[in-house]
């Protein structure tokens, strides 16, 4: 609930108005793990709240800490045991958490592990927040940046995403600045426009990965629905409405999208939009046979873009020693469970 909603609820429960502020502060500032810890609330209210609005908690199922760079990957179980992964990363500019927006994903991108088991369900706003809050509790660190780049297509879970962002940026809550939040989309054009219209003005990243519709269709099924021309229009609309340049994510896949021609096409798309390009050497997923170009080829691809006046960075590779790619940890866990709990047919 937003603070005004909580105020209404407290009124209906016959509570004084200031209780709403207290509860909101416990949940979103002090990061209380449950109602029982809210010690300045009457005990009777705490139990009534627990009955009417069960507190969302996530449980840590697995935690991997990279020995290379301190990146931490968490596998969380939601209240219904659905599995979701989140990542904690340290950067020079602060600590960043990458969260999942859905349990699984139905977008079907060929190189992505999150989609291998399909979509199970959407995450609730509280389940998105709780990934960040639980990581803050466990690490004891301040979280200054959030990226919605874990499992799921955030714009496919639109209403929950918007509510989540509203709570995350509430000045009485975690109060994250809009510019330190990035939402990444595979390109649901109508929703990109809706998102622009809402004026939340967070950073938007578009997963482009190919510069012709033909090639994009071979790696991203969503390209059958929306063309690159429509995507570029939606990006300029986003800029017009929010004043934020869109970033293009481009996962470099050897012999698929790393040619000279691809670089030229990419520059032609990014140039007019002044889009920043984030190159991500594709993270190999066991079930797929995609490889990333070697480091030198990645640097050369970057150089080509720079020579054409494009602003480009190579995504720093973090956590290479701990199932780094989108959805790998969860997928492996699901497979392990299949092995240890065979179906009745054996
Ligand atoms: N559904 C959203 C957000 C989740 S994926 C989206 O498509 O943008 C976050 C980013 O990681 C996307 O750019 C996605 O294409 C990319 N990605 C997924 N699997 C990857 C892999 N194995 N290697 C490199 N990038 C990958």
For the residues shown, what is the average pLDDT? Answer: 93
Helical proportion, percent range: 25-40%
Number of domains: 1
CATH-assigned homologous superfamily: Aldolase class I
Radius of gyration: 21 Å
The hetero molecules present are: S-adenosyl-L-homocysteine
Task: Kindly report the CATH topology.
Answer: TIM Barrel
Largest sheet report: 10 strands, mixed
Pattern of helices and strands? HHHEEEEEEHEHEHEHHEHEHEH
Count the DSSP helices.
11
Number of strands: 12
How much beta, percentage-wise?
Answer: 15-25%
Instruction: Report the end-to-end length measured between terminal Cα atoms.
Output: 45 Å
Low-confidence blocks of residues = 340-346
* Spatial arrangement of strands, main beta sheet: 1-2-3-4-7-8-9-10-11-12
- Overall structural class, as computed from helix and strand content, comes to alpha/beta
Shape, principal axes of CA atoms: globular
What does this 3D model show about the protein?
The structure is a single chain. The protein is an alpha/beta fold. It has one domain (27-33, 53-338): Alpha-Beta Barrel (TIM Barrel), CATH 3.20.20. It has 11 helices and 12 strands. The chain has helices at 3-12, 18-28, 43-52, 125-139, 158-168, 189-198, 213-219, 228-242, 260-273, 295-307, 328-340; strands spanning 59-65, 72-77, 83-91, 94-98, 102-104, 119-122, 145-148, 181-185, 203-207, 247-252, 276-281, 312-314. The strands form 2 sheets. It has a 10-stranded mixed beta sheet with strand order 1-2-3-4-7-8-9-10-11-12, with helices on one face. A hairpin with a 6-residue loop joins strand 1 and strand 2 (72-77). The chain is globular, with a radius of gyration of 21 Å. Residues 340-346 have low confidence and may be disordered. It binds S-adenosyl-L-homocysteine.
């Amino acid at each position: 609930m937003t603070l005004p909603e909580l105020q209404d609820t407290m009124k209906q429960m016959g509570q004084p108005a200031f209780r709403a502020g207290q509860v909101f502060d416990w949940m979103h500032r002090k990061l209380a793990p449950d109602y029982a810890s809210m010690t300045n609330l009457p005990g009777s209210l705490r139990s009534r709240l627990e009955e009417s609005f069960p507190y969302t908690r996530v449980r840590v199922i697995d935690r991997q800490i990279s020995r290379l760079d301190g990146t931490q990957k968490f596998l969380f179980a939601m209240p219904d045991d659905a599995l979701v992964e989140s990542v904690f990363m340290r950067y020079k500019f602060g600590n960043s958490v990458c969260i999942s927006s859905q349990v699984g994903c139905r977008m079907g991108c060929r190189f992505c592990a999150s989609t291998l088991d399909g979509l199970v369900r959407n995450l609730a706003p509280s389940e998105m927040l709780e990934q960040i809050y639980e990581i803050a509790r466990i690490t004891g660190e301040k979280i200054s940046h959030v990226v919605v780049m874990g499992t799921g297509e955030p714009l496919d879970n639109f209403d929950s995403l918007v509510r989540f962002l509203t709570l995350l940026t509430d000045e009485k809550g975690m109060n994250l600045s809009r510019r330190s939040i990035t939402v990444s989309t595979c390109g649901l054009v109508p929703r990109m426009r809706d998102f622009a219209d809402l004026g939340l003005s967070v950073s938007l990243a578009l997963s482009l990965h190919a510069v012709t519709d033909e090639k994009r269709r071979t790696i991203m099924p969503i390209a059958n629905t929306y063309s690159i021309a429509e995507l570029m229009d939606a990006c300029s609309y986003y800029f017009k409405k929010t004043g934020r340049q869109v970033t293009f994510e481009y996962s470099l896949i050897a012999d698929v999208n790393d040619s000279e021609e691809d670089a030229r096409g990419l520059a032609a798309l990014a140039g007019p939009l002044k889009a920043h390009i984030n190159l991500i050497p594709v993270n190999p997923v066991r079930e797929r046979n995609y490889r990333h170009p070697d480091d030198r080829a990645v640097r050369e691809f970057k150089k080509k873009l720079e020579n054409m006046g494009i602003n480009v960075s190579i995504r720093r590779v973090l956590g290479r020693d701990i199932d780094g790619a989108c959805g790998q940890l969860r997928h492996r866990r699901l497979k392990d469970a299949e092995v240890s709990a065979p179906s009745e047919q054996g």
